[in-house]
Amino acid sequence: MTTNDQAAASFAVHIPDAELEAEPLDPAQILSGEPVVTGKVLWESADGKQVRGIWQITPGVVTDTEANELFVVVSGRATVAVEGGATLEIGPGDACVLREGDRTTWTVHETLRKAYHISL
């Protein structure tokens, strides 16, 4: 389910089984391996500034510049190195907050699936 209507009915999604769609990964972001990214937007605000969804990445090493995001890891394991900041070891059940503009390097050890909320 994807909706941008705040008045839409409430819903539940079983995150581990949710079907995801391919999302392009810029080859310039890949430092190692052949990671594949999939995801699904579950909800987006009418102004496009709030997005909630599910995201998954297979093993490899990639770089990213982050949005203001809160996510919870459902499965998998990764090390997220924040340039000039912390190195985060994340796995199932971990909640993580990334700040807008954080430059990160993700070393994905096991296919990682997360539920997220992004504020743009």
Write the layout of secondary structure elements.
Layout: E1 21-23, E2 30-32, E3 37-44, E4 50-57, E5 60-65, E6 68-82, E7 87-90, E8 95-98, E9 103-119
Antiparallel strand pairs: 1-3, 2-5, 3-4, 4-9, 5-9, 6-7, 6-8, 6-9
Question: What does this protein look like?
Answer:
With 120 residues, this protein is mainly beta. It has no helices and nine strands. It has strands spanning 21-23, 30-32, 37-44, 50-57, 60-65, 68-82, 87-90, 95-98, 103-119. Strands 1, 2, 3, 4, 5, 6, 7, 8 and 9 form a nine-stranded antiparallel β-sheet that branches. It is globular, with a radius of gyration of 14 Å. The relative contact order is 0.25. The mean pLDDT is 94.
Key features of this structure:
mainly beta, 120 residues
In short:
By secondary structure, the protein is mostly beta strands. 0% of the residues lie in helices and 57% in strands.
Distance between the termini: 21 Å
Principal-axes geometry comes out as globular
Query: What can be said about the biggest beta sheet?
Result: 9 strands, antiparallel
**Helix content range of the residues, please?**
under 10%
Give the strand tally.
9
Question: H/E order of the elements?
Answer: EEEEEEEEE
Oligomerization: single chain
Please state the structural category. mainly beta
Which percent range describes the beta-strand content? over 45%
* Number of continuous helical runs: 0
